[in-house]
Amino acid sequence: MKIAFIGLGNMGAPMARNLIRAGHQLHLFDLNQQVLAELAELGSRISESPKHAAQGAELVITMLPAAAHVRAVYLNDDGVLAGICAGVPAVDCSTIDPQTIREVAAVAAQQGVVVGDAPVSGGTGGAQAGTLTFMVGASLEHFAALKPILAQMGRNIVHCGDVGTGQIAKICNNMLLGISMIGVAEAMALGDALGIDTGVLANIINTSTGRCWSSEMYNPWPGVVQTAPASRGYTGGFGAELMLKDLGLATEAARTARQPVILGAVAQQLYQAMSARGDGGKDFSAVIEGYRKDTQV
Ligand code: NAD
């Protein structure tokens, strides 16, 4: 299949590689010429604009930093909608607010083009291994068209509802993750300050009612989970800056819905404080450093 793939960064490039490996012919576009040159060596077509990439494509996939880039890539004069044929499906895999993708989809619908959202979880490791989870917001018919291709980049392809619901699922889950990590950090730091061995405490939590993914798989105390970023200096995980971005999307979506997200807003401020002191590049579990007496800032 001829697939336009736009946005070839840390996530997009390995996703595109998986599609090339699966035998698809890719029309690639990114502002970064270096990444385009690398992927061109694998036999893909380099495009001059999103419009050019979409021309002749049978599917369009975008993977961009934020909402402003998604608007520009679809709606500008040289954007996707200027080049795509009616009836060709498109899907945006970026993490953005639900409202933006709904607005882009509404504009696309006027010319017979269906745009859905499919944000991912699984990080760059999942993108490379082809094991991402896609949270898809699309009609059932659109979902059926997208699923076989998404399955070549991911393991779990979940239909969440109509366009925008993929983003809703993503920001609600990540808000909870951000909050639960802070809860685990507080409990682990308190236990240490009061004098219990942190390994013993983690075992108790993980067989008791406090157990959650942040305590069990990704515990923020160094050495508790050998494979967690905490055990390798908070490197190579999910950066606090990305968590901050997702919490910003959640609190902004909550504001528009007049829905209180009290803990989500507090969590946002804690990750913002991390970012402000220059720790935004660390894994988000390093939020515990603000609680530990030996690392407090
Ligand atoms: P990135 O910054 O590494 O890559 C974005 C790419 O988009 C860059 O190559 C950039 O040059 C390109 N780009 C920007 N504006 C463009 C434009 N107008 N036209 C064409 N290309 C343009 O970001 P990433 O880490 O790949 O993340 C992409 C999306 O996935 C984000 O929305 C992010 O929140 C989400 N996400 C990232 C991760 C992760 O672990 N990195 C995990 C889950 C979801």
Description:
With 297 residues, the protein is α/β, with parallel strands linked by helices. It folds into 2 domains: 2-162, 3-Layer(aba) Sandwich (Rossmann fold), CATH 3.40.50.720; 168-290, N-(1-d-carboxylethyl)-l-norvaline Dehydrogenase, domain 2 (Orthogonal Bundle), CATH 1.10.1040. 48% of the residues lie in helices and 13% in strands. It is built from 13 helices and 9 strands. The protein has helices spanning 12-21, 33-40, 50-54, 67-75, 80-83, 98-109, 123-129, 140-150, 165-194, 198-206, 213-216, 240-257, 262-276, and strands at 2-6, 25-29, 45-46, 59-62, 90-92, 115-117, 120-121, 132-137, 154-161. The strands form 2 sheets. Strands 3-2-1-4-5-6 form a 6-stranded parallel sheet. A 3-stranded mixed sheet has the order 7-8-9. Helix 1 packs parallel to helix 7 (123-129). The chain is elongated and about 65 Å long. Nicotinamide-adenine-dinucleotide (NAD) is lined by residues 6-12, 29-32, 35, 63-65, 69, 72-73, 94-95, 120, 123-124, 242, 245.
- Biggest sheet, spatial arrangement of strands: 3-2-1-4-5-6
Bin the helical content.
Answer: 40-55%
Radius of gyration: 21 Å
Structural class: alpha/beta
Domains (count): 2
Distance between the termini: 53 Å
What global shape is seen? Answer: elongated
Number of H/I helices: 13
SS elements, strand count: 9
Major β-sheet, in short?
6 strands, parallel
Q: What is the CATH topology assignment of the largest domain?
A: Rossmann fold
- In round numbers, the mean pLDDT is 96
